[in-house]
Write a structure and sequence with these properties.
By secondary structure, the chain is mainly α. The chain contains 3 helices and no strands.
Amino acid sequence: MTPKEKQFVDYWTEKRKTWSWRKHSYQTFITVAIPLAILIDLVNYFIIGDTQYDFFSFSHLGTFIFNLIIISVLTIMGLGFANWNYNEGKYWSILRKNTNKLQ
């Protein structure tokens, strides 16, 4: 086992015990969902020119919040499952490779 693989196995052994959806949801919401929703809203209004309502209106705010909720749910669930499955797959492949070398 290489030092990098050993470091990952040690990291994921501890991280998988303390991994929680609450922490993942908060981090993904702040770092991905909000910036993505703002970017989509700005591109939709200023570049595409979807001006069916004023930029500062309750209709626009309602549409933005609806889009934010949809984007949040999709990114939190998608990235959570993808991240967990990627790390679990890598973890178990390293351990299998290491046990096959020992036999």
